[in-house]
Each structure stands twice: as C-alpha cells, then as structure tokens.
Amino acid sequence: NNLTYEQKVEWLKSYQAHDRKIEILTEELSRWNARATKITASFSSEPKASGSGDKLQKCVDKICEIQSEITQEMVSLKERKKEIEEAIKMLKEKSEEDILWYRYIKGMTFEEIAVQMNYSWRQVYRKHRISVEKLKMS
C-alpha cells in the first residue's frame, strides 16, 4: 500500500464523482424523455408527420443509451462504496471512521463534520489527514 495521501483522497473522492455523474445522466435522461413526449404529441396531431418517426427513434435510442450508462455508473458506485466502506471500517478509532464516512460517502464539508461531531474545524482536518494516511486499500 504505497499510495500517497493525495492518491488516497482522490480514490475516496471517486464515490462522489460517480454519484454526480449519475445525477447529470439522470437530468439528461429527463430532457430526452421530454423531447420524446413533444415529438409524440406533434406526431399524433399532424396528419402526415414527416420525419417525426425518425426523430422519435433517435430519442428512444438516446434514452436507451443513457439508461444503460446510468446502470453501469450505479454498479460502479455500489462497488466503490463497498470498497471505501471496507477500507474505512479497518480504522481502529470510531471518530476516524466517522470523519471519512461523513466526508466521502455523505459528501459533507469539514465545517459540517465539525458541527456534527462537536469538534473544531482544525480537529476534524487533523483527524482527517491522520485517518487518510492510516487507510489501507486492497
């Protein structure tokens, strides 16, 4: 386990990155669903909807593509969460576990963690650094 502090932090941050990507893809999926709905509405109101079928097919294809990508990201997110939680559980002190869990799984700031744990911001930051350095990743 020869990773630097910075490399460990980047690994820990990857959970939130997967989570953000899922949010972005979900928003994109909503936009494509809205487009498909508009095309379907115009398709049924026009006597000769020329090209609407092609547009609708394009939307359906894009929706399927995005749904597949969301599924893949969710699998990655679940796997990364499990890996991170296992690494965090190896720490001996509960406060160290809590700080890393709050920071990298819940996505809380150091200030929010300090309030949650009734610590000063400096204590949280110091314990965070020590906790990350202690982490052993498989």
Portion of residues within helices: over 70%
Low-confidence parts, pLDDT < 50 over ≥5 residues? none
Rg computed from alpha carbons, rounded to a whole number of angstroms:
22 Å
Mean pLDDT: 89
| Straight-line N-to-C gap | 8 Å
How many individual β-strands? Answer: 0
What is the strand content?
under 5%
Could you say which structural class the secondary elements and strand pairing correspond to? mainly alpha
Compressed to H and E, one letter per element, the order equals: HHHHH
Oligomer: single chain
- The coarse silhouette is elongated
* Main sheet attributes: strand count, strand direction, barrel closure: none
Count of alpha/pi helices: 5
Q: Can you walk me through this structure?
A:
The chain is 82% helix and 0% strand. It has five helices and no strands. It has helices at 5-45, 52-89, 94-105, 110-117, 121-134. The chain is elongated.
Which descriptors would you attach to this protein?
single chain, 138 residues, mainly alpha, elongated
Secondary structure: elements and pairs:
Elements: H1 5-45, H2 52-89, H3 94-105, H4 110-117, H5 121-134
Summarize the structure.
The chain is built from five helices and no strands.
